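Researcher: I'm preparing a figure for a lab meeting and need a structural model of a single chain. I don't have an experimental structure, so a prediction will have to do for now. The sequence is pasted below. Please return the structure as tokens so I can convert it later.
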Amino acid sequence: MEKLSFKSKRARSIFAITVWTLILTWCVLFLYVLAWGLMTSGKSDMQFTYNKLGFPKPITNKWGVVRDPGKFQFLENYAFVFESMTAPDSHGARVSFFPMLLNTLYYTLAYGLVAVVSPMLCSYIYAKYSKRVRWTKLVWVIMLVNMYVPLSASLAASINLAMQLGTYNNIFTFIWTYCGGFGGCFLIYYAIWKGLSWDYAEAAIIDGANHFTILFRIMFPMTLTVFWVLYITQIIALWSDYQTPMVYLRDYPTLAYGVFVFNSTVNAAGANGLDPTSVTIKLAALFIVATPMFTLFMIFKDKMMGSLTMGGLKG
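Model: Understood. Here is the structure written out token by token.
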């Protein structure tokens, strides 16, 4: 028995060492790529051509003439992105950086809120009142089919439907398409609602509370942590979404769509000699757009990565 126990402990230690070695290797590689990208975003195009991995250093020709002083130029690269990153609307006009930023803020904050609230309400109704209606199981089947069965013609059909409903290319009305009520948030909130005892509601009903009071003043506050985690997750996902604005909101390009266009540009060098097609400028654009979401994640990382606990009363 002692021999078997020793072998078991040795096997577990080898497994733990292997796993932690792989995780550490992945973290080191990730941090290296991140540091390389940040460093490269401050290089000149010539520095990147002759020195892709190292720090900037002076570059001279065969006659000893300095062609590049070998210094970082973060200010020039990032300023060039603010001035030059544009995206076309449906009429061919170019939308500049700050209007795209306003579109992005509305798109992420408003659409993310609707994308969380609607499945929260649908899952609550299904979890707490489904026993009163027999055909609700059909809704569950439809939701699963919609999530996991690919529909090849869904894009063309959805564009046609958006045009017929008047939501196409309208950032204020297209928000209603995010009120589907199902998806991953529905499953998460459904599990949360099923875990909450209905005794809270019964006590409130005795005191004269209606169903809206039970939901918004008793049930919802106990799941507030889950709500904020899902909302922040939706914001991060929508911030990097360029396909939806590109297809459905042509007159309201976002920063993610602007980076997509900027990284696909074939324009000539700008007036200050910087080339928007260079890798350094493209990396600068990526870091500008990624920094707000990285900052948001670092602020709320403890809440997002921690346990999703629910409040309640004891006794």
